[in-house]
């Protein structure tokens, strides 16, 4: 009996296996992808380039990072993020702003459900001007810490700025304060000497976020933590867009190299900051931070409740089932009636945000957008200019800020709502990075922040349609070509 007659030729067997894999991958795409463009792209790749498409989808298309985050939260005794948008409870906006317009009360409800964090009242938030003021305040806070210090940042260089922090963290560790430092794997490599090595040699507990390893996890090396948080004793915090590096200090002539924004926070909002850090710490190294030690209850006086600001943390990342920051920004643009001011170093918004900006301008809202005239990432600048024509056509005002490079990330709406933090206006921040932002509701704080950025807009140059149309052809061509890759920049 000829057994060969009972065995499929190798080619047919392999083709059948690939066909089954394509079908299974396509079913998985349709079950898990919410963005129709992403779903179409993956299905097309799987079927048009079977071997390459299947390998690419297994490596980059399956969100295993959500599984890791779910296990991390379960270890901490927290419910996994399911995407169910339920009211988180807590105070209402009307509890602190009795005459709050209905549109802002509705926005606050949406933000609570999207972010799954309640609004906090009685907070004190102070802007810090420049790296010198911010770094001095942060190091003083570390030196005054009594129980705990938690620090996470994207870039932490072992230069003249970073070494001050290394020394302060070492002093805190040596006097018995519990210290935890979390640095991003990519940001840790900025400069010649990784700061993680310096801290380890001094005995300071440090973890590296999502390092590259020769395993399936290497596929997620593109997912970075971009958060900048410092929490002292669970009661005082610092957040914003400032990394730890000498670029934020003045040069030898006393002139600033970079403009940026950072904030000092006190009140119950700090507990939400610490919760985000504890989540990232457990995700990175598996250690569960004791809540009694690291997240003590924050007591608020009646006077603080009366004079403080209402604020909410927006901890966003690729492990989340929704794009929190983008949804909150879209909602705030929908609530705008008078004036929107946006300051960002990188401006590559996706279509939903572009539409929201255009709708605001067409309703008669003044929409002012400030980006650097000279960007530290020329490729991003070219791409950004390639996509803004539709905004200028719709009536948005685009401004280019003069040097030094402005790294601030701020949004002010109607002088009563402010968003600050680590997110840029691009797909990387909204979809790939782990980010931390804070939304604030208060007229006085909004007015202060409007005054804070007034000079930046006043000294900037406006961009007209003629300016965009008369740009060199080569720049327009390169920009539009790069624009096709903007979701990945």
Structure description:
44% of the residues lie in helices and 19% in strands. It is built from 20 helices and 19 strands. The protein has helices spanning 10-32, 36-48, 50-61, 64-75, 93-96, 102-115, 130-143, 162-174, 195-201, 269-285, 291-294, 302-307, 324-335, 351-362, 378-387, 389-394, 427-432, 443-458, 465-469, 473-483, and strands spanning 120-129, 148-153, 178-184, 206-209, 229-232, 236-240, 258-259, 261-266, 309-316, 339-343, 347-348, 366-372, 397-401, 405-406, 410-413, 417-421, 425-426, 435-441, 461-463. The strands form three sheets. A 15-stranded mixed sheet has the order 4-3-2-5-6-8-1-9-18-16-15-10-12-13-19, sandwiched between helices. A two-stranded parallel ribbon has the order 7-14. A hairpin with a 3-residue loop joins strand 5 and strand 6. Helix 1 packs antiparallel against helix 2 (36-48), helix 7 runs parallel beside helix 8 (162-174) and helix 13 (324-335) runs parallel beside helix 14 (351-362). The radius of gyration is 24 Å and the shape is globular.
Q: What's the CATH H-level superfamily name of the largest domain?
A: Endonuclease Chain A
Helical proportion, percent range = 40-55%
- Unreliably modeled segments: none
Task: Please tell me the total number of domains.
Answer: 3
Q: Give the beta-strand count.
A: 19
Structural class by helix and strand composition: alpha/beta
Question: Per CATH, what is the topology of the largest domain?
Answer: Endonuclease, Chain A
Q: Return the CATH class of the largest domain.
A: Alpha Beta
β-strand percent reads 15-25%
Instruction: Name the overall outline.
Output: globular
- Main sheet: which strands, in order across? 4-3-2-5-6-8-1-9-18-16-15-10-12-13-19
- Our measurement of the CA-to-CA distance between the termini, rounded to an integer number of angstroms, reads 62 Å
- What is the correct CATH architecture of the largest domain? 2-Layer Sandwich
